[in-house]
């Protein structure tokens, strides 16, 4: 289905004269002109079908099958196109978990995600951080059948060689604006966040290391140019963030744009869209309207197949060198939201669905297998403002699992606390991205709904002071409420990911959002005198700085993910072999019926004279949160609903 470029999209790029086939030819160009359309998918996370396995229902906001229709339409609009993927392919949906944990991948097998992508003739791809979640052998087997090359320049084997080819030069023949054939060498280089060695330490320790993204680019881009690359495309599975470069950044795309020799940057990892996206406003070097990073064209194509990234390049030849003379960028969606309802813009591509059909149907059967029952509803609609049953089930199951594992250990007499976060809490996932399980049977799909990541259980041994600071870091999710200003104020900081809002069960505390956050978004202390955590107690007594606790968490957090005090990889005392999700499932099987109850172990301090607001999903109206009073105020953008907290 051919997509027209709307006036709004054109104006977003800052190139009002853009046409369907690309850019108008530069009038002063003396030599040949080639218009090349670069297409990007990113962060697909094993979403092939337009289907939500957690809700066991169709979902028009996701799926490579829908993006594929945009790909074919975009190709029909342009003479010359290339298609790239920017990583995070094989993990992120129950289809991915089914292949990894139930079916398995041996050498020679074809992963459903790869089978679907092979239908689209990708030119090249790179690795995302989630490619490493199941281990290196699984990664190699899963991607072994890909009919497109993979590049990654900053993951190294222990012998110093890169895990994948760092770069590749693709010899292509394009048709110029005069109808003549032009041979152009397209260099492609890939990058992944260097933090994978922390996030997947159990899989990578002693097997692979990483280097800084910009350092890797400075090392390899000159080699790409020496190999004859006319134009260099960076597949950067890393997001866009401002600030001074210090090295080792997780989101380094903006810094990467400064590297000489790179012409185009395809970004991802953050699950946002670019151009557009208010998340990138007011960052020096970022032009949100034109879609540039330090003047270079860039695109970020959402997540789960929600968008197709497009960069239209006008290449001109000066002597023997090809240059980017003009460009436009676009993030093209697979759906619109009309009157607060999702309206699909395209149909699914039949060939892509057929390629993954067997895996899809097997996954449906797998996720519907029963494991127990729940006597109460389990939902996350108010998980960011009050104690919550969906998180409580996780923390209870974790503590139950670890108490059994450590009952004969040297740590058996230490108190066990349990940290959990509300992974599905709306945000960039949309107004339906919440856990909602009604009383009755619990199936495997519900385990993945409650705990969406394939994390494994870890235990850290920390002090009471570190517990307090852990919670202070978590409380950074709240904007500071200004009592003197009064009136209506937004409570939740949209830049703070919900998966970093750890609740620690086993202690009791209040959070005071009128205080400044002690920590910035990167986990650095910026307000040393501020204390949001109040009345921290254990068994009714104040927690002292020198008390010793075991805290159950996951491998991501214990290894340093999110930069939490007391969780940097040095405090771990137990590494479980099991997934957190499996521990939850065992807990439910053991109990047969669960009834997780929010017991008010933490609460928000509600100041007088201020109307603190937050957004949640429409179905929140069917429930009331525990320990706090809220009232619906009305509709909010993008299908959300606005609530206020009543004092």
Automatic annotation (TrEMBL):
GO process annotations (BP): nucleotide catabolic process
Record-annotated Calcineurin-like phosphoesterase domain positions: 36-271
5'-Nucleotidase C-terminal domain segment(s): 371-565
SUPFAM superfamilies for this protein: 5'-nucleotidase (syn. UDP-sugar hydrolase), C-terminal domain, Metallo-dependent phosphatases
Single GO MF descriptor: 2',3'-cyclic-nucleotide 2'-phosphodiesterase activity
EC number assigned by the record: 3.1.3.6, 3.1.4.16
Signal peptide: 1-29
Pfam families in UniProt: 5_nucleotid_C, Metallophos
CC terms in the record's Gene Ontology section: outer membrane-bounded periplasmic space
Keywords: Hydrolase, Metal-binding, Multifunctional enzyme, Nucleotide-binding, Signal
Nucleotide-binding recorded as keyword: yes
Class of enzymatic activity (EC top level): hydrolase
The keyword Transit peptide appears for this protein: no
PANTHER family, per database record: 2',3'-CYCLIC-NUCLEOTIDE 2'-PHOSPHODIESTERASE_3'-NUCLEOTIDASE, 5'-NUCLEOTIDASE-RELATED
Family as reported in the entry's similarity comment: Belongs to the 5'-nucleotidase family.
Protein name: 2',3'-cyclic-nucleotide 2'-phosphodiesterase/3'-nucleotidase
């Amino acid at each position: 289905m051919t997509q027209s470029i709307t006036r709004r999209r054109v104006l977003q790029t800052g190139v009002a004269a853009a046409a369907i086939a690309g850019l108008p030819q530069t009038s002063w160009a003396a030599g040949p002109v080639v218009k090349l359309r670069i297409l990007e998918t990113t962060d697909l996370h094993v979403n092939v079908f337009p289907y939500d396995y957690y809700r066991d229902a169709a979902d028009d906001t996701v799926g490579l099958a829908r993006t594929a229709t945009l790909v074919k339409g975009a190709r029909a609009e342009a003479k010359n196109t290339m298609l790239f993927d920017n990583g995070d392919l094989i993990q992120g949906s129950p289809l991915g978990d089914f292949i990894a944990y139930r079916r398995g991948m041996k050498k020679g097998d074809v992963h459903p995600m790869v089978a679907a992508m092979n239908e689209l003739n990708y030119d090249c791809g790179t690795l995302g951080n989630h490619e490493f979640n199941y281990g290196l052998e699984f990664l190699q087997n899963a991607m072994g059948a890909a009919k497109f090359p993979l590049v990654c320049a900053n993951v190294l084997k222990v012998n110093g060689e890169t895990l994948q080819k760092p770069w590749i030069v693709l010899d292509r023949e394009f048709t110029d604006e005069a109808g003549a054939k032009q041979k152009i060498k397209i260099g492609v280089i890939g990058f992944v966040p260097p933090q994978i060695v922390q996030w997947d330490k159990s899989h990578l320790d002693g097997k692979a290391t990483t280097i800084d993204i910009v350092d890797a680019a400075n090392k390899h881009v000159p080699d790409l140019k020496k190999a004859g690359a006319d134009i260099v495309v960076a597949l950067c599975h890393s997001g866009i963030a401002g600030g001074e470069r210090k090295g080792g950044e997780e989101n380094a795309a903006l810094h990467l744009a400064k590297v000489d020799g790179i012409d185009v940057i395809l970004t991802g990892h953050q699950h946002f869209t670019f151009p557009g996206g208010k998340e990138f406003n007011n960052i020096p070097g970022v032009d949100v309207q034109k879609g540039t990073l330090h003047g270079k064209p860039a695109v970020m194509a959402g997540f789960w197949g929600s968008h197709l990234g497009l960069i239209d390049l006008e290449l001109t030849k000066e002597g023997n060198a090809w240059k980017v003379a003009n460009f436009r960028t676009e993030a093209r969606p697979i759906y619109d939201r009309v009157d607060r309802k999702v309206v699909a813009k395209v149909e699914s591509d039949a060939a892509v669905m057929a390629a993954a059909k067997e895996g899809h149907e097997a996954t449906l059967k797998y996720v519907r297998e029963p494991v127990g029952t729940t006597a109460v509803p389990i939902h996350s609609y108010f998980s960011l403002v009050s104690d919550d049953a969906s998180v409580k089930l996780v923390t209870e199951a974790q503590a139950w699992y670890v108490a059994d594992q450590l009952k004969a250990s040297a740590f058996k007499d230490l108190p066990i606390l349990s940290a959990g976060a509300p992974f599905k809490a709306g945000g960039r996932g949309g107004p339906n991205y919440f856990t909602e399980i009604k009383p009755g049977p619990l199936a495997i799909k519900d385990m993945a709904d409650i705990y969406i990541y394939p994390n494994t259980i870890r235990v850290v041994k920390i002090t009471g002071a570190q517990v307090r600071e852990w919670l202070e870091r978590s409380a950074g999710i709240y904007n500071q409420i200004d009592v003197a200003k009064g009136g209506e104020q937004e409570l939740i900081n949209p830049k703070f990911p919900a998966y970093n809002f750890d609740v620690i069960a086993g202690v009791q505390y209040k959070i005071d959002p009128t205080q400044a956050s002690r920590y910035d978004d990167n986990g650095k202390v910026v307000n040393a005198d501020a204390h949001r955590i109040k009345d921290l107690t254990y068994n009714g007594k104040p927690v002292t700085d020198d008390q010793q606790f075991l805290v159950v968490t996951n491998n991501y957090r214990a290894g340093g993910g999110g930069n939490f005090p007391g969780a940097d990889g040095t405090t771990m005392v137990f590494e479980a072999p099991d997934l957190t999700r499996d521990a939850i499932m065992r807990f439910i099987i053991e109990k047969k019926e669960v009834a997780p109850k929010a017991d008010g172990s933490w609460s928000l301090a509600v100041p007088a004279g201020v109307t603190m607001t937050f957004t949640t999903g429409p179905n929140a109206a069917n429930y009331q949160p525990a320990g706090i009073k809220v009232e619906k105020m009305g509709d909010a953008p993008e299908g959300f609903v606005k609530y206020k907290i009543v004092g």
